[in-house]
Amino acid sequence: MVSHEKTVMRRLSIGLRLTLWYLAFFALAQIAFGAGMWLILRHNLYDLVDDGLEEQVDDLKNFLQSQPKERSLAKVREEVNETYAIEHSGNYLEVYAENGELIYRSAFLQAHPAELVPPDQVTRPILRSRKIEGRHFRFIVQKLDVNGHVYTVEMGVPSEDAVETLHLFRSYLLMFAPLLLLAAAGGGYWLSRRALSPVDALVRTARVVSGTNLNSRLQKLETGDELQRLSDTLNEMLDRIEAAFLRITEFTADASHELRTPVALIRTEAELALRRSREEAEYKESLRHILTEAERTTVLIEQLLSLARTDSGREKLNLQPVDLRETLRKVVGGWQQVATIRDLQFSANLDVPDFFVMGDETLLRRLADILLDNAFKYTIAPGSVWLSLEAKGESVVITVKDSGVGIPEQEQSKVFERFYRVDKARSRAQGGAGLGLAIAQWIVRQHGGSIGVQSRSGDGSAFRVELPMIAVPAKNPQPA
Ligand code: ADP
């Protein structure tokens, strides 16, 4: 039952919920206020009536006091009856002597006898309300000590006016309270709608934002409150989503563009070869061109796949302690041969102690391959390429240096961007799509390191990778 109510509450709009809460509190406050006012009014009205009553009792006391002391009870009774039978204040009066003998009782009280409080219990004045024949009265019962005699007196006055005023007040309250409540509900609802109307505007704009109009933004609010913070935060989020979306569309466009070139080359080569019959040597030459382009395309597709995997977070690192010197030694072997073929000097300074890093060996080899591949690609014979490994504080530093074409200073920060090539024509001829350094940077960052370049146009380049070093892991004890 309770959970059902909760779901109903959740389904109501915030505006309606606020109004209902507001209404509940308002109704409670109204009830408390009404009841309080009614009680105060009642107290004051009865006070007035009681004051009048006490004055009449004082008059009676004065009258009794004016009787000579030696007067007999019978005589006093006669005097009281004579005076109070015609007095207005005698209409609702009863007087008893000390011994309980009745001295005076008005005709009205004879017809409607009171439940008398036993005289010995009347220690102080007792005030109470009575309803007789549909009329309201206030009665007082008290003892009067006059000239050595103690009388018990019960005296009443009609309290019709006070009761009527109270009734009237209550009817006004009951009449106006629902109207006030209704007005409060209307006002509350209007206020909450007004306060929440910017939310509706946000919802309307947010609904139309899609992949094709990611540049549209939510209405800018100047309310200086939580709603403005909400719209600002959502807009900042849209900025980030738009940037990511643009990166992906650019990546797709660049990738398609890069793939179109080798495929077009392969097609042209094949079409040309097939146009007429040729010598075997010519066919072989054509097939060699096709094979070279196909190999480049394979490399490109692998790079694209690798970047796509990193973007989607699916590329998982197999982290373990890696001996960087050993890893680089394995890489260097292959590049010595490339150096000989290309007539380049290649020296690797790996005469260092064991340097361990926490890393993925395959990825670290790939990182070294990318940097060495670039160094060899962008160095014209007879030039030199150097690889070195050294420690610097808590880090290990790998440096790949060449005496090649260099990178102009204004381009150095951009070479790590995807598809960025300094010299488009030359890079294309050498087969690069501008993805190698983007992958290298991703690998370095995944290892908690940093990569940078120092270069001057025409004066070689030095790529420097810094990786956090770990202590040399203890060798597994050999089984006895
Ligand atoms: P690519 O596959 O084209 O080599 P990279 O991302 O590896 O792509 O490099 C981006 C660009 O940076 C290259 O196109 C080249 O212009 C420049 N570059 C990279 N390494 C070197 C280097 N060692 N010497 C000169 N230029 C380089």
Average per-residue pLDDT, rounded, comes to 88
What oligomeric assembly is this protein in? single chain
Distance between the termini: 71 Å
Helix percent band: 55-70%
Count of helical segments?
Answer: 11
Question: What's the count of strands?
Answer: 12
Ligands bound here?
adenosine-5'-diphosphate
Taken as a percent bin, the fraction of beta residues is 15-25%
Described by the principal axes of the CA atoms, the overall outline is rod-shaped
Q: What about the largest sheet?
A: 7 strands, mixed
Report the radius of gyration as a whole number of Å.
53 Å
Indicate the low-confidence ranges by residue numbers: none
Q: What sequence of helices (H) and strands (E) makes up the elements? A: HHHEEHEEEHHHEHEEHEEHHEE
Tell me the layout of helices and strands.
Blueprint: H1 2-11, H2 14-65, H3 73-86, E1 93-96, E2 102-105, H4 107-111, E3 126-132, E4 135-146, E5 149-158, H5 160-208, H6 226-275, H7 280-312, E6 320-323, H8 324-342, E7 345-349, E8 356-359, H9 361-377, E9 384-392, E10 395-402, H10 424-430, H11 436-446, E11 450-455, E12 461-470
Parallel strand pairs: 7-9
Antiparallel strand pairs: 1-2, 1-5, 3-4, 4-5, 6-8, 8-12, 9-10, 10-12, 11-12
Helix pairs in contact: 2-5, 6-7, 7-11, 8-9, 9-11
This protein binds adenosine-5'-diphosphate.
Adenosine-5'-diphosphate is lined by residues 374-375, 378, 402, 404-407, 415, 420-423, 427, 432-438, 461.
Polypeptide structure, described:
The structure is a single chain. With 480 residues, the chain is an alpha+beta fold. 56% of the residues lie in helices and 17% in strands. It is built from eleven helices and twelve strands. α7 (280-312) runs parallel beside α11 (436-446) and α8 (324-342) runs parallel beside α9 (361-377). The longest helix is centred in the N-terminal third of the chain and has 52 residues, at 14-65. The two termini are 71 Å apart. The model has no long low-confidence stretch (mean pLDDT 88). It binds adenosine-5'-diphosphate. Adenosine-5'-diphosphate binds next to α9 and α11.
